[in-house]
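In this supplementary section we document a worked example of the pipeline. Step one takes a protein sequence of length 513 as its only input; no multiple sequence alignment statistics are reported here. Step two produces a three-dimensional model, which step three serialises into structure tokens for compact storage. The input and output of this example are shown verbatim.
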Amino acid sequence: MSRAATGGMHVKTLADGTLGFELRFRVRGHRESVTLHERAGCRCGCGGGWDERSARRELGNVLARVHAGVWQRDEAHQRVTAHDAAASRAIPTFHEYASYWLQAKSDGVLGETPIAQNTRADYLWRLRIHLLPFFGPRRLDEIDADRCLAFKAHKVREAGDLRAAISAGAELRDNRGRRIVPLSASSIRKLLDTLASILDDAIEDGHIDRNPARGRRIRVRVPKPSRTFLELDELNALIDAAAEQDAPATPAKVAASGGDTAMKVALRLSRGHSQTAIAAELGLSKATISYHARRLGAATPVAYAGRAFIARVLGYSGVRNSELCDLRIRDVRLHDPAGARFHIPDAKTESGIRVVEMSPDLAEAFVEHLDRLGRAGRPTGPEDHVVQNTRRGRISRQRVAQIVRESAERATMIRRDRGLPPLPKTTPHALRRTYISIALLANQFDVKWVMSQVGHADSKMTLDVYAQLEQRVKREHGVRFDALVRGARAQLLGSDLGPQFEVSDATDADRSR
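The serialised model returned by step three reads:
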């Protein structure tokens, strides 16, 4: 009677952190082995992947076939390959899972609440342009730390090459004619954060065991940006420059000698209406309106964009860029001069949903802006936006940022001509910080009230501006120091003690304040 075939199993950890189960046995006096690989992420009962229990069961099957004399290496390879193929089908590709992940985030299935439309658009950009071309066709279990590091290196190198080309004078544009801007360190970090978030949820869903996009080597160091705000004179310079770039409040008069259509076109051109608006009002083609405008000798009027109004609202209320873009006329209350305000019904945080009080000057700017919209033929119904694009719809955040940037550039040119320093980097967020600085000074550093105005649940940003203001006040300490030393010198030389006492009194007053 022949002795039953025996064998064993050796468990080893592979380079990618998964396990391998090496089945060892003898066939007709020769040593044989079959290695089964653990497929990361197949421990969820889906039937794919090898674990220690299923590997021992497979070892029993192998030994039984060896004992029966029917074991063949090719057949064993086919069994393992078929098992691995089933595991491969159970694990989605990155493209498949990322598509599910984005939809689940939008529906609120993943996360506490559904993500906002702007957030979804940002995620979609990160996936389509950057992550999917690199990871898309790969299964989740095929994405390892080396692949994630290769993605990071690719993006860093790509951004460096673009900067070098732009510095050399190249004007790079995409297939839609838009200027190509190299990714900043913070943008690359956001891409890696998105990748890590997707793989975190893949772990929760049982597709993988570890997240290769987490770790010290995958991090990107982002220099802390210099957060600043405008001084009072700089804010006024910005608003004045924006008003200078805007369409004139009183367009040039255009007269027509005859013809009903020509007279109607001339009247609307005199009111500052754009040719597109005139075509819509009269039910005529743009070509017809352009023909009459040329015949009348009228230059194409600059469409009213509300540049000065945009700069004033951002600097006088501290609203976010997106909140200004979403603001509708129905949310503005101007009937009470002493209690003018507007409502932010939708914001990125719950604390952002608030009522913003307007100063008298800001309320007057709202009245003038809405009046100019009406005189320019723009819609001013309750559902219409306060700030509109050229198509009378919602203006984009990018356009608002461009208006602020162009106004700051113009203000800097004017200030340099006058021998004044340029404006610091000015963005809508810088104007938000500017409002916080002014509001803190105007309200005796009432931090809670300022936080309620700007919609802050966390006081970090408000207190950061507060710290900058406090540091600015401390700049006067050096002047006081010199005054004290000069006073002591005067006392030593026996001169009048008046200046010393004046300095002391001023210091005590400052201390009590």
